[in-house]
Amino acid sequence: MFGRIGAGELIIILIIVLVIFGPSKLPQIGKSMGEAIKEFRKGTQSVEKEIKDLTDPASDEK
C-alpha cells in the first residue's frame, strides 16, 4: 500500500511528525493532507480525460 515503506519506517515517521507538530495539530494536518490528495487526484483525472478526448477521435462523433 505504501510502496517500499515498511511498518517500522512508517512508525518512525509518525513519531517524528508527532514530536515536531504535537498531538493537537495532527488532526488538522491529516485533514489538510487528505484534501490535498483529493484535489491532486481530481486534477490528474481531468488531465487524463482531456488527453483521452484529444487522442480518441471517435468520441467527437458521438
UniProtKB/TrEMBL annotation:
Topology relative to the lipid bilayer, per the entry, is: Single-pass membrane protein
Tell whether Acetylation is among the UniProt keywords: no
Q: Does the entry feature the keyword Transport, yes or no?
A: yes
Where does the chain cross the membrane? 6-23
One Pfam family named in its UniProt record: TatA_B_E
Gene3D superfamilies membership: 1.20.5.3310
MF annotations from Gene Ontology: protein transmembrane transporter activity
Keywords from the named record: Cell membrane, Membrane, Protein transport, Translocation, Transmembrane, Transmembrane helix, Transport
Signal peptide residue numbers: none
Q: Name one GO biological process term.
A: protein transport by the Tat complex
Enumerate the InterPro entries for this protein: TatA/B/E (IPR003369), TatA/E (IPR006312)
**GO terms under cellular component:** TAT protein transport complex
Where in the cell is the protein located?
Cell membrane
Describe the family membership recorded for this protein in Swiss-Prot or TrEMBL: Belongs to the TatA/E family.
What biological function has been recorded for the protein in this entry? Part of the twin-arginine translocation (Tat) system that transports large folded proteins containing a characteristic twin-arginine motif in their signal peptide across membranes. TatA could form the protein-conducting channel of the Tat system.
Listed under subunit, the entry gives:
Forms a complex with TatC.
The protein's name: Sec-independent protein translocase protein TatA
Question: What broad taxonomic lineage does this protein's source fall under?
Answer: Bacteria, Bacillati, Bacillota, Erysipelotrichia, Erysipelotrichales
